[in-house]
Amino acid sequence: MSLKASPPLTAPSGASTLPAPTPWPGANARLLGLGAGLPVHPLNRLASFGDKEFERFVLEWAHGFLMKQLPPGSEIQWRGGAGDKGRDIIALAGPAAPAGRPWKLYQCKHYAQRLGPADATTEIGKILYYTWKGDYFAPQEMWFVTHRGVANSLQDLIDAPEDLRAHLLKRWENDCKNKITSKNPSS
Questions:
Q1: Residues in CB range of 26: below 8 A, 6 or more apart
Q2: Does the residue 86 lie in any domain?
Q3: Would you say residue 22 lies in a domain?
Q4: Tens-digit pLDDT profile for residues 38-53
């Protein structure tokens, strides 16, 4: 299909001549949002998801992308929801083994604002608590997946592990102890 410019529109006498608009196939349908609809920026589309839809989207990403990076026999699991013990999406590397297998955690946070230290501290606290309790062993990596990104104050902590450690210890009582489980985790 070739697109050609139309000749200028003829104006009534005394008026100026306007050039014809550049051809845009299906312009009316696009402008009215018919058919495929108006283009939506990917981050705005993610913002329209609910929490579970966002986790489902991350699960599909994990199956479509992460599985290609993992060894044969690997597994992706969606653990999100009540009782997930701080694990939304996990990637288990390699086939099941009696001693367990290495795994990576993808913690989904679908908030209206960027993820800050208080919420991140609670999530990291869950992993520390449940590994301390022996419910599972520590992941190789923990990733926060959020469409808004992380606050600068949290990124500063992530970039300085000793500062993050000190922050976790300082904030344990406020951000973790009573937010991980209905039973008070040990200090």
A1: 35
A2: yes
A3: no
A4: 777 888 888 888 899 9
